[in-house]
Amino acid sequence: MRVLVVEDDPQLGPWLRDTLATAFGASDMVTTLEEGRAAVAVRSFELVVIDRGLPDGDGLALLRDLKQQKPSPATIVLTALDDPLDIARALDGGADDYVAKPFEPIELIARAKAVLRRLFLDRGAIVRIGNLSYDVLNREVCVDHAPIVVPRRELAILEAMVRRIGRVVLRETLEVAAYSFDDEIQSNAIEAHVSRLRRRLRAANCKVVIKPVRGLGYLLSGE
């Protein structure tokens, strides 16, 4: 799962990005409408959190663009405005929910999970391959119904492959899944993560196989 934060506050923005990354996976942050439009043009996001008051305009302008995407991401609008008309304008503009500033992390995460739950109702929130199951919303991996702990980047890589079961997943796709825009990526980082993921699944007696496809990426399949 990937999250985009569109927030220009120099303290709130990074805090939002890190909080949502802990809960949902790789998160990116931009500070303007123009940067938001550029981000969604090059990457797909499942959740976008948008501030209303951005330096180059109202965040609702980006919201309208997002709703034209197929499939469109879940969206939450942040606002310092508590006027019911402003809240109604955000919801009428296509926002799945809104959060009024100031707010606590627990409220934001709960609201994000609620809108994502509705999003995944139509997409299948739990994917099963062999004796492995992956809960996309809660980011939980189970082997033979027993949960196993998978570190964040390995989890992002596994999710990218699970969502493309039976297809070759390009190395570049795995980099996008595991790393944010401003992360530095070592030349052998993906190979190292995949190697550790393989060992972790093997130790849990998982029956799925991650096969390298020379010069391209990896293929996940059930035995």
Automatic annotation (TrEMBL):
Pfam families: Response_reg, Trans_reg_C. SUPFAM superfamilies: CheY-like. Signal peptide: none annotated. CDD domains: trans_reg_C. It comes from the Bacteria. Residues 2-116 form the Response regulatory domain. Residues 124-222 form the OmpR/PhoB-type domain. PROSITE patterns: OMPR_PHOB, RESPONSE_REGULATORY. Residues 124-222 bind DNA. SMART domains: REC, Trans_reg_C. The modification 4-aspartylphosphate is found at residue 51. InterPro entries: CheY-like_superfamily, OmpR/PhoB-type_DNA-bd, Sig_transdc_resp-reg_receiver, WalR-like, WH-like_DNA-bd_sf. Keywords: DNA-binding, Phosphoprotein. This is Response regulator transcription factor. It comes from Bradyrhizobium quebecense.
